[in-house]
Amino acid sequence: MSAGATDDRHMREELLLLAAYLLSSGRGLLQEPPSYGPLRCLDAARRVLALRDGLGGQESPALADLRASMDDVMCGAMTDRELDVLLDDLCDRLAAVVEEPGAISA
């Protein structure tokens, strides 16, 4: 199997696992505390950005910092956080990355 085929297979597997995570998260939300929903969405976004990074290419420093912040929330010590403030900040930072020249093709 060629390296390209192996990479494609790995990406397909990761996307399948992400879909499974999203569906199981949706199901779990029916019985979980309300704060789990925003954290699950944050984790899914973090996973998508990790997949994006796995495709190679240039990553902006702002996006790398954003991913590090998301990793810290999901993998760091569990602390009480103001989720609305945290998510507002992450959304603002991601919007700034999306607005960078060349981030999205026209």
Task: Give a written overview of the molecule.
The protein has 106 residues and is mostly helical. It is built from four helices and no strands. Helix 3 runs antiparallel to helix 4. The longest helix has 26 residues. The radius of gyration is 16 Å and the shape is globular. The model has no long low-confidence stretch (mean pLDDT 89).
Features:
106 residues; mainly alpha; 72% helix
**What best-fitting shape do the alpha-carbon axes yield?**
globular
Number of strands: 0
Q: Which regions have little confidence, pLDDT < 50, spanning 5+ residues?
A: none
Overall radius of gyration: 16 Å
Helical fraction equals: over 70%
Spell the H/E element sequence.
Answer: HHHH
Topology diagram in text:
Elements: H1 3-28, H2 36-54, H3 61-75, H4 83-98
Quick recap:
It holds the Pfam family DUF6092. The protein is mainly α. The chain is 72% helix and 0% strand.
